[in-house]
Each structure stands twice: as C-alpha cells, then as structure tokens.
Write a structure and sequence with these properties.
- The protein is α+β, with helices and mostly antiparallel strands and 625 residues long.
- The chain is 56% helix and 12% strand.
Amino acid sequence: MSHQTETEILPESVRVRQWFEKLERAKQVYEPYIELVKHTREQYKSVQNETNFRSVVPTAYNIFWSSVETQKPFLYFKRPKPWVDRVNKMATIPEQVACKILERALDWSLAQFDFDSVAKYARNDYLISGMGLLFETYQPVFQSVELNEGETSEVIEKEMITTRYWDPCHFLADTDKVGVWEDVTWIARRMYLTPNEVELQFGAEALEKLRLPTADRLKEKSVCVYEIWDKTSKTVLWFSPQCMDSFLKEIPDPYGLEGFFPCPKPIFATLTNDGLIPVPDYTMIRRMIDELNGITERMRLTMQAIKVSGVYDGAFHRLSDIFEKDVTLVSISDFDRLKASGGIRGVIDFIPIEQYILALEQLAKRRDDVVKRIFEITGVSDIMRGSSNERETATAVEKKTNFGTLRNQDRQNDMQRFLADLYRIKADMICTCFTPDTLAGFVNVSEGYTENVIQEAVSLLKQDKLRGMLLHVESTGIVNTQEEILRTTQGVQILQDLLKDAMSFVSAQPLLLPIYKQMMMTVIGQMPQARSFESVLDQTFSHIKTDLEKPDTQGAEQVQRHTQLTDHQMRMENQALEQQLFERKLSVRKLQQEYELTKEKNAIEREKNLLKQRELDMKEHETQQ
C-alpha cells in the first residue's frame, strides 16, 4: 500500500498524532545540540553582553569571537552573481533568449531584498552554531483592479522569490535511521505566531481549532506552529501542538522542485555519516578557552597585587605624603636624624613585588601558547589574522598564507556549494511560479527579438525549467589577489602566442581550426572572469568557420579575392581579440601595481607601529629603572 493511499485512509486525527510523536522524538535528539548552540552563542557575545551569562565567565579576551570574525570574510563577503548558459553551445535563438530571461529574473529577484544580510546569517550560524540554513519562498504581490459595474479583481502586480533565514534552534529533521542528508524524508521549522498572524495565514477556522484561552489571545507569539515538508507524500503540513484534532493547513507540493525541499543541504561544521547533528567548532576548543579565561583572570588579579606599598618610621610621619603627587618635596623637621638613619632608604621599606612580576611573565607566556594552539585548531594562520613578523621573507609569508588557505578551502567550497544550490532552487521556482507575462517582461522586442521568439523562450522555461541549462555562480570577489593576477597574466600571454600561430596555420590548413579553438577555450576556462572572453571567441571562430566552408563556385580570381578577404577579416577579428587581451593585461598590471602599493603601505604602517612599540618599551623600561 502506498503512502498516499494510507494518508487518504487514515483519519486526520491519527495522522496528527503520528506527526506529533515524530516531532517529539526529533526534539529529544536535537535538544542537546540546541542547548550547546545557546551556550556557544553566549560565549561568542561575551564581550558585548556579559549580563546574559549564566555559566560562562565573562572575559575581555574573547578568542572565539576573534577566530570567527577572521573566518567570516574568507567564507563569504559579497553577493555572488549568477549566470545561465546552455549545455549545448550551438543553441537556437529561443534557447539563448530563455537563458537571458532566467539570468535577468535571478538578478532582479536578488535585488528585491537584502540577500547579502540573509546569506551572512547562515554564514555566521555555520561558524558559531555549526549549521547554516536558508530557504526560498514565493511571494506574489496582488493589486485590486476595477472591472465593469463596480466589480474588482485581484491581479498579480509583482512576483518575488525571497530567501529567508532559518534558525538552527528551530530546525528539526528526520532522525529515524538517517545518516546523511540525502536520506532525509521530512524537515520541519518551528515558529511562534500571534493569534492575528494565525488568522491571516490559516484563516479564522484554524484560529477556532486552537481554542486559545482569552489570556493567550492577548499574548504576543503565543502559538507554536510547525511547518512540515514531507518528501514521501509530497505535501506541506502546518501543525500546532495546541490543536491535536487536525492540521491547521495541508497542501500538495507547491513548487514541484526536484529535491522537493525549498532549502538546499545545510552547511554543516563537524559532521559524521551517522547523523545530522553537527558539532560546533567551539566544542573543539572549549577546554582551551576555559583555560585561557582562567589565565586572563589570574593575570588581572596579579596586576591588582602589583602596587607600591610598604612601611616607614613613624618618627617621620610626613613621608606618607611623598606618593600623593608625581613630583613632591616634603619638609622634615629632623633632617639630620634622617641622614643618620641612612636617608629615605633607611626609614622606608617596600613590600617585594618580584614574585608577582615573575608570575605575570609566566602567565603571559602560557596565554600566548594557548592562543597559538587555538588558532592552529581553528585553521587561522598568522597572516590570516593580519599579523606577521617584519623579519619574515615574502616567501615565508606566502607559504603561511597558502597553508591557511588550503586548510579552509574545503569550508569555502562548501559555502559556495550551498549558495549555488540555493540559486538553483530559486531559478527552479522562478520557472514554476512566475507567470508567462512576468517572464516575458525581462526581454523586449527593442533588443531585436520577435514576439514569437520571446513566447517560445518562455514556453521552454515553463516546460523544461533548468533542463539543458547550466547555472553558474560567479563571485567577483578575489580572495587571493596575487594568484588571480598571475593566472590572468599567464593566460593572456598564452592566448597571444596561440593567436599568432593560428593566423598562419589555419589559413594554410582550415582543418586545424577546431584544434586551435579548443586550445584557446581551455586556456580561457582557467582564467578569472572567463565568460567575457568565451562569447567573443565563439563569435570569432563561427565567422571564420562560415567563411572557410563557403563553396568554391567562382573562378581563380574570385577565389583569390575571397581568400584575401577572409585573411583580412581574420586579421581584423584577431586584432579586436588582441586589443581586448591587451586591455585586460593593462587592467591586470594596474591591479598588480595597486596590490604592490597597498603591500608597501602596510609594511610602512607595520614599521611605524613597531617603532612606536619600541619607544613605549624603552619608556617603560626607563620608568622601571
């Protein structure tokens, strides 16, 4: 018997009870993780809000906050740009227009809300809580239109696919013998609504089912509701523990997504293949952070103990006034007696503080060792923290940078995978939910496309969706600037050499044309911002191939003229491509110069800071003497 048949036969109250039991079992599994997340968030915020602590000792040396803040821009710091292309490069005009429509629709949808902030919510949860979650939702905006005889109708004014944040503490998933994400059959989101929100979202009948007491109706966020996405039955259910007789709402698959869920696979921190409960990074360094907090507290108490204190001869009571001001002269009536007693050294004795200074030095050394261990475990190298030794060579600094990058590359790739999957879900929902008129509005006839071509492109999107398309997520941000500059410079040089050879060899032997095209495409594919080169190269080689394949129906004189024209056209097109490569090379040089200038400024700034530090050390040393 299929699951759908069982759903139709079982009474709704029985199904509600079954889902209630599933959710309760999942809550028991997730409860330790949720408590750990709350504790981790408190530790992260200890500097900003110390009053919220219950078991964490507040400290001004929040190394966990420093580690997280360092890794944030490495994982995500700018909204990536999507672009859509056909799998088959020899696409028809309607297929090309369909790609352009979808790409513009994605760009427009992302610009309708603050996607950057929402993506950073997931990134922060990933680093702090061990799991980042986002989901997509379709939001149409309706407008009332007056019809004949005073009648009104609701029409769609605007359509959006909005990315929403999902708190890991409000997330539940299938935990019944589930080891990896691909085995999950249902997910649920817990939310708290006001009675008015329940009525607006589910109707007055749903509000009556809750049977809320009068006091609860006046409370804010007093209704707990679970939004359940069941992949097995392809249904979405809204359930509240305050209503055990029926669901608040139940609808079939609303979006028709390939993976059913409106969210991509979450980004997990430490995770094994026997469950979906991640381990936050804080757990790995928790004991060392506790030790660091203890060392910092001891240093604070030791500093309080280091002060000028002692005893003096009561016969010279005016000596107690010496330390009241920076420069003080005190008159003493029996100065001769003071001299006979050995001067001030003979009548004043200070409490020794050498043991405190020695203890403070040992504590500072131990604290530095603990900090280094923490940064080694979290993968934050010296250069990634913005600090390095001024005596280090450029090669040493580069090795440290590459090592830190390699250690965190897997996390960066996982973040990119997460965003790419999110964009694919958004694109799939655009094809499904947007009306044909909305899709057609992203191109117009002024661009040279006929109405038939536009309508055919819209039909392809509605019927085939993303089949036959490649959705890429291209970030314009550069993490390793020097590496990107080097790759671009090398690629431009290789392309220039290939162009020089192609002009002579292809003219003599046209069969070599596909080989040279493939070689150039391979080189361009390894360059940053390769898309701008690919379109020009495809167009150039298409013209060359068309000219070479024209039938030889003319005389020798016409063939010679045709050959000369082809050579001239090739030279012109190659010159245009060389000009683009030259301009790109100039741009790369400019970036490299700016990079070198910035590096020199940073070196000068470090040298100034070092000199200032040395002056402070000398002054402190002189003061101690």
